[in-house]
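Bench notes, afternoon.
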Amino acid sequence: MVPREAGRGPLSINVDGATMERLWPLQPDERAEVTPGAILFPGRLELLLNGAEVYDPSPRFVSPPLPRPAIIHNLEVAKGVTLREGHLEGMGDLISLLDGKDPFEPNRFTKAALPHVRALLSSIKTGDLPGVRKASRHMIGLGIGLTPSGDDLLSGLMVAMVLGSRNGIGQRGAGLIASRMVQGRRGLTTRLSFEYLQEASKGRANERVESLAKGILTQGEREVASATLAALSIGETSGTDTIVGVCLGVQAIIAG
């Protein structure tokens, strides 16, 4: 459960601030009872689901894809906003890979991730599924928190690739490539993060992440800058790490 301000997503139940405050005493090992019309928390709260809106966005773009030069320009816009406003403590400085450059001052996470991200991007370009599996194996679970930085990067990359592919951009087999990244990986990361990875492999993510991917591929500079800022607000470093993945994913599909 997340506050409304966090944005909608395929695994989230968005509630208002007052409800979040009443849920705060819940402990990690406490269980809720889910019924067709409500979620029941022992002795504390009953959340009624009647009339709740289900988040199920269409994977189809409203606007046609932009020409490649315009998409490249949008990537530069997203990169610039991320470098100015993002939290680079996780995988953020890997956004330099958009220019084919290593991070100037890599932190311990980007040092560990860099060779595997490079190998992953190379395997995606050539359609090397065993290479994709091998490289992503080293990324999943890399970092700290409920959704480690490596997972966030992979999630953004998969969402961009799958959404692009479904709209005629890049490789037709992007869904297969994405599924190989997460296949058999349960247990390598947190339970929550693995569920997010599985959703991302189907092109589903927080609405701000999807809006950014769609914006880079179909909209203008102003919309991309706004969408990047919105995505940066997700978590501590999760938004920044996911944006890096989205940008690398977009670059991968337009290069194919």
